[in-house]
Amino acid sequence: MSRSVSRTLPLWTAMAAAGLMMAHQVASKAIRDSLFLSTHDASALPRMVMAAAVLSVILGGLSSKLFAKLSPARVVPLGFLASGVLQIGEWVLLRINPSLGSVIVYLHTVAFAAVLLSSFWLLLSEQTNPQEAKRRYGRIAGMGTAGGVTGGLLAARWTTMMPETSLLVALGILHAAVGLLLVLHGGRVPATGAVSAVWGSPRKALASAPHLRYLAVLVLLGTASAATLDFLFKSTAAATFGKGDSLLQFFAVFYTSVSVVSFGLQTVVSRIALEKLGVARVVGTLPLSLAGGTALAFVMPVFPLFAFVRGVESSLRGSLFRAGYELFYSPIPPAEKRAAKTVIDVGCDRLGEAAGAAICQALLLLPQPSMVSMLLLATGGIALANSWVAGKLDKVYVAVLERGLLNRAAEVQLSGLGDWAVDPELLESRTIELPRVEVPVERVSNTMPADLAVRHLAELRSGDSRRVRAVLAIGQGVDPVLVPAVIDLLAWDAVSSQAKNALIATRGALTGVLSDRLLDRNTDFAIRRRIPPILAAKPDHRAVDGLMEGLKDERFEVRYRCGRALDLIVLNHPELKPAPDAVYDAIDRELSVDSGLWRTRRLLDESSSSDQMSHLDEALMERADRSLEHVFSLLALILPREPLKAAFRSLHSEDELLESLAMEYLDGVLPANLRDKLRLLERRPVQASKHSTEEAARLLLQSHQSIEIKLRQLAEARAAAEDGQRE
What we know:
1% strand, single chain, Growth Hormone, Chain: A
């Protein structure tokens, strides 16, 4: 049965929780670094980072196993409440043993708080579809960065009013408030059951999904480069400002400034950047900027420049990188996401920090100037490698959308269609069988005697359906001399099926003459619309060229049937695939129409089986939008068929998540101009069209012409019925 995602977390709740959570994160970073560097030497920092990384990996694995059994909506609020209680306990411990207390605060802030941050975004991703995520995540992250500014100001001003360690009590209250918000207003997501065996283990999840491995490497390299730069920044900061309140003040001002810049980038730049540049380029701004900044710092190795580069890295990580990175998880199925997200967000993040800390620990053996230079070289080299990984993410994101689209489609029951169990066999468009006429094995002469040809031509032009069918039923195809006359018979409903079969059975090159008649605007419309299936039965490059030109015809039905014929040819003969640019041009022409005309296109005699090409999706034959079906037929010429067919079905379903996945997938594979036009045509309501006088006259004449054609076909059908009665 169709199962929609329950969006039980109100936007205001998510924004408020994000603001409180990020206020805690920024303020806790300031007191974490100040407490640790005030009670321990800076040389102990790499070992502390590695210990925190080990704890993070353990907590990440445990949380993944917990999410495999329980919904994040149940676990995450309790986690924030527990963190608040622990933070107050740490305040008590600091009064007893400052050295041990600073270590516990560091581990809590780095490991436990990081798991909660990842879990919060996991909760959001399970309640938000990809299209909605683009709209909501910017506002939620924006409120989060605003909260970060508040947290930084709180940390900066706290020591002027209260003892430094008492800030931990305020931090505990912030996390407890997040937990209470989620308990009272977060609602519940319907249980999806336990994670399958494939995804129950994070190791199996990463081994089974290449896109998750890309994300894991992206996170690991990103935090490794950030860790080496962070050590350089903090060690030089401690040497510059000393210990105690002045160091806390500096860190508070620094993290507040980073939050202000992040807020500006998040609210003003991120959404536009995602729509215009794509996920890969937005995520790639972080490693590219870091590589450029370290190159500049290598030339001028001074503390203000180290602080500037670290500030740029932190600002981009909290804004553009976060917005693009979190989008990857929105289309991933919940079971897969629960198994891997926390492990990647926390485990790989901390492993990256541990790797960076190990590099720093090794370089501590070098003299100070050499150590600084080597740290900058290591940071820049890792950042460049991460830039290459980020450059692959556009393709990875499309692959994630394909998986999410097909997995969601497998769960959906379309109204009126019964269960739609999407599996590879169903999603593969079946080969469309065209009527074929068996030709005798013996060699058939290319031409018949002149007198026989004349007699057959006379029979074909006799107007007597019995005599015409007698000639067409010979079963050896059509003599070249008779081909033009047989093509003319395609307009006669009573014999059009036999004429088509005879042309298909004819040996020799007919694609030239068929293409010429298809493209001749003086040829009867009834003939032109019945030529594409014949060309599809004689696939070669000339047939493809003729059908591609047929996509420029003024009549929609001709273009529609040319598209279906091309789809059949490419399905059976991929080597004949047309050039993508030509296909995109044809799609652009189809989308450049009035919305009223787009929604009212129909085919003549859709129920007729004599000349009808099979539809893109037979299950939707009665309810599909013909304009949309035509566009998807053309897209299937150059894009993967399975996700396209699932996307086509999704746009006729009532499942919001499935439709959102489809639109997001199309956003990823279509050129920007086509994507925007398709959105406008599919989303704006049907309104009365406002045409100029000339346009109205043209449409009226076009309608009149269609009526005349229909009346003529009805008269022909009546005459054929009378002939049948006489027979």
